[in-house]
Amino acid sequence: MDQVTKTAFKKVALIVGLAMAVCVGVYFFMGQQAAFEFLGAYLIEFSLSIDNLFVFITVFTAFRVPLDYQHRALAWGIWGAVILRFVFILLGVSIVEKFEWVLYIFGFILIWSAYKMYKGDDEDEEKDVTDNMGYKILSKFMPITKDFVGNHFIAKVDGKWHATPLLATVVVIEASDIMFAIDSVPAALSVSTNLFIVYTSNILAILGLRQLYFVLEHLQERFAYVRYGVAIILGFTGVKLAILMFGLHIPILASIAFIFCVLVGSIVLSIMKTKNTAPNA
Question: Which helix (H) or strand (E) holds 154?
Answer without folding.
Answer: strand 154-157
